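Ticket closed. Logging final result for Oxidoreductase.
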Amino acid sequence: MTVPPSPDPACLVRPDCVHRDAYVSREVFELESRRFFGATWNFVAHESQLPQPGSYVTLDLAGRPLLVLREGDGRIGVFYNRCAHKGTKLYTDEAGHAGRVLRCPYHAWTYRLDGSPLGVPLRKDYDLQALSRCEAGQGLTRVGAVAEHRGFVFVRLDAQGIGFNDYFGEALQWIDNMVDRSPTGRLKVAGGIVRNVMRCNWKMYLENVNDTVHPVSTHESAGKSAKAQWEEGGTTATGAILPMAVEQLLPFASGYEFFDGMDAVVYPHGHSALGVSFSTHSNYAQPPGYEEALVAAHGEARTREILDRAPQNTVLYPSIAIKGAPLVMRVIRPLAADRTLVEAWSFHPEGAPDLLLERAVSYNRLVFSPMSILAHDDVHLFESVQQGLQSDGNPWVSMHRGFDPAELTSTTARRCKGTSELLMRNQFRAWRTFMITTEAA
Ligand code: FES
Ligand SMILES: [Fe+2]
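Final structure:
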């Protein structure tokens, strides 16, 4: 039975543990949908999805339908996907092209590509002055704020709040690390998006992104079978080039020492980089000619920096988790207290060998697809935790590992061991902060 939530969400987060209502309570979910997701910056689209004026993508952000649109002047605008007449979603496809005007499928009201009203059928039957004075006459409503970094488009739904650069700060370098893997500095979304609805709270999924203690036990069978297959093939001779799938799966067979030593950094507002010393991606072979193309574009020093920094996961809280080296990204979308949509995206770096896209798609299929030999291990456990938290008795979820009281007053980037639960505590501290930001309510 769920305990009624505290009227003060601040009470749900302690320095080293979190109340189960943060995961299971429908009331808390409703509150965070408005308050937390209103105040924070969330990823909505990549510019390569919007090649020309009229191109659009749609999405649901914490219960709000959004329309991301390339406007007539080339800028990217983000509107609520709601007709000014009676509320119909203007577009329901995931992506498409609107043409030169936006047209509602219900009663054919039209809008310019900047969202302003253009026409209504039976115009003579309207008092046009009265219409222009009320909400219906204003056209589409823009979200509070839009910002773009290296082709990644984010929104803050609230009109007022923290600025984009203040919010992400140093964490933006991890978008740069992935984008600069293209010699031209441009990525393209490609290879399809793997979508998976998990029966768990979105915060549980984001915790798992930074959970390096679970692979040893949760993914034991996958790691072992990758190792066994490779060794049985008799191809362990020195210098042998690993097949792509083996290269991607073999590191999951590593022990606690490996994950401990990979180290991590947390940033203000819940962001993090796990695997700043090394990661399961560190030893990927590069396709012929790729490094040379990067050196020609970025110089030797920057190329080394780009390729040598291959974190396990970098989280731009709360909507995306990036893996720069395999060029993949997960997008996390809350649907309900116990439902989360997780999308696995792959990118092709412009000017780089096609093999990199193949590697990205392979990674998503092997590791994040629900039919892979890895993802179902996690999916089962997410559902299990969500159910286990319905228990009476202990209402607290432990996040004690690696706790240091000094972290409570830290306001800058902070380094820790790869297995520390600081990365999770850091997320929940940010969650608490934005849940109690009253102007965002
Ligand atoms: S609801 Fe869009 S035109 Fe009527
Ligand atoms: Fe996992």
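Residues 17 and 399 are 5 Å apart (CA to CA). No further action required.
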